[in-house]
Design goal:
Blueprint: H1 17-22, H2 24-36, H3 38-42, H4 45-65, H5 72-88, H6 95-114, H7 119-139, H8 146-161, H9 177-196
Helix pairs in contact: 2-4, 2-9, 4-5, 4-9, 5-6, 5-7, 8-9
């Protein structure tokens, strides 16, 4: 586990200390969303789901890079899947939209369980869906989360260049590009969730 994320695997309780500790960024993002608008969050099932998914990503990422129990892979991949599903259906405010979100998560779970090697394909497909939905939002004149987009783009660059044998990979350094990915992707997720508290409309509602 974690062998492709550059940081040297140590024989201690935290196999990759920097990557493990930086996983707390997802928990900070979840707390930030709740603190900044607790009443708004509690009124939206998808926002509650987003906050819970961020918490699970924090736990899964810490377990994956830290103590590495047998279930770490499953929680790491599953929590990311859940978070991406939330972002695809984040505007869902109708029962039909929420039902679609549940069906999408169930389908993704079945696919991953049947073929664990399909995880990258599932994540990539959901990420493309998020991009399509953001484009759809822009077409409807809804605001784009500029800060979230910038953080995510920079984070993706760090993720790509910081992989094992990547340009930014230095296994023994306390500055790990993958840790930067954790921090920036958590910030992007938190900013996007926070922005949704003030949005109007439902992209999954039936046309009037």
């Amino acid at each position: 586990m974690g062998a492709s994320d550059c940081e040297l695997l140590r024989g201690s309780w935290l196999a990759q200390p920097v990557n493990a500790v930086s996983s707390a960024a997802y928990l900070v993002a979840a707390v930030g969303v709740v603190v900044s608008g607790r009443r708004d969050v509690l009124r939206s099932p998808m926002l509650v789901s987003g906050v819970l998914a961020l918490v699970l990503v924090a736990v899964g990422s810490f377990a994956f890079h830290g103590p590495q129990p047998s279930w770490a892979d499953t929680l790491h991949d599953g929590s990311i899947t859940a978070l991406l599903v939330v972002y695809v259906f984040l505007e869902a405010r109708t029962s039909a939209g929420l039902a679609l979100a549940g069906a999408a998560l169930a389908l993704a779970t079945v696919v991953i369980a049947a073929a664990p090697s399909s995880v990258p394909v599932v994540h990539a497909s959901l990420a493309v869906a998020v991009v399509v939905l953001e484009w759809r939002r822009r077409k409807r004149g809804l605001p784009a989360p500029t800060g979230a987009v910038v953080a995510l783009v920079v984070g993706i660059v760090l993720y790509a260049l910081g992989r094992t044998n990547g340009v930014l990979c230095d296994p023994g350094s306390v500055l790990q590009a993958h840790a930067g990915w954790h921090i920036l992707s958590a910030a992007a997720a938190g900013l996007a969730l926070d922005r949704r508290k003030e949005d109007a409309g439902d992209l999954w509602a039936e046309p009037a």
